[in-house]
Amino acid sequence: MANIGIFCATAGGTSMKIADALAEAFEVDEVINMEDDFDDVEQLQEYDVLFIGSSTWGQGDVHHSWVDPLFEISSDGIDFSGKKVAFFGAGDSVKHGEHFCSALGKLHKAFVDAGATPFGYFPKDGYNYEFSLAELDDKLCGLAIDEHNESDKTPKRIETWIESLKSEI
Ligand SMILES: Cc1cc2nc3c(=O)[nH]c(=O)nc-3n(C[C@H](O)[C@H](O)[C@H](O)COP(=O)(O)O)c2cc1C
User: Fold this and answer.
1) With CB atoms counted within 10 Å of each terminal CB, which end of the chain scores lower, N or C?
2) Closest CA to 168 of 104, 102, 117, 123
3) What range defines the domain where residue 13 resides?
4) Ligand 1 pocket residue status of 94, Cβ below 6 Å
């Protein structure tokens, strides 16, 4: 099994549902909570495969705990070549449907610009948002969940995503 790191930023624990399911499926001992356990960007580089999570805030922003790491990644030229990275997080497609889970798109851009190979794109069928920076090439660039409006779809979405990740790793 590849050396896998799971990094998750969450305010209310919703995105952590995905992180915990990933940890179980891929037998990863610990989810790194960005607020409590994150030290520096070098910590991200210890892994060959990264699962990067954030809920979305403000107007399509990443959780605040990702702001400094993303700035460092771009300004210090941190190199993620050779690393496979998949993205996940929670949002609200009704109240914030104008930027549903856009944090995934911002994370995706930062890591891909730094040389990472993205994987784990997810079909956008069945979602009901107006706009999202997570939408790329007619797919979502990772797993988005909406526990406010579509909680009934979450278990299947997580299950389907994890199955496809297993085949892509
Ligand atoms: C002030 C505020 C701004 C928000 N902005 C967005 C947004 O731009 N896009 C979105 O999809 N969700 C947005 N949300 C919804 C949260 O992302 C959502 O509640 C999510 O489930 C939180 O997940 P967490 O518990 O993992 O932090 C916002 C919520 C609040 C309270």
Assistant:
1) N
2) 117
3) 4-168
4) no
The pTM is what? 0.98
Nearest CA to ligand 1 atom 16: 91
Q: Is the CB of 154 under 6 A from ligand 1?
A: no
Counting from 1 in the atom list of ligand 1, the atom nearest the Cα of 145 is 21
Handedness of CA 134, 142, 28, 112 (dihedral sign): negative
Whichever domain contains 21, its CATH number is 3.40.50.360
82 C-alpha vs ligand 1 centroid, how far in Å? Answer: 31
Distance CA 132, CA 1 (A): 33
Cβ neighbours of residue 168 under 8 Å, at least 6 residues apart? Answer: 84, 119, 120
Kindly give the distance from the C-alpha atom of residue 101 to the centroid of ligand 1, in angstroms, as a whole number: 8
Q: What distance in angstroms lies between residue 57's CA and the mean position of ligand 1's atoms?
A: 5
Local confidence pLDDT in tens for the 169 residues of the chain: 689 999 999 999 999 999 999 999 999 999 999 999 999 999 999 999 999 999 999 999 999 999 999 999 999 999 999 999 999 999 999 999 999 999 999 999 999 999 999 999 999 999 999 999 999 999 999 999 999 999 999 999 999 999 999 999 9
For the chain, how many structural domains are there in total? 1
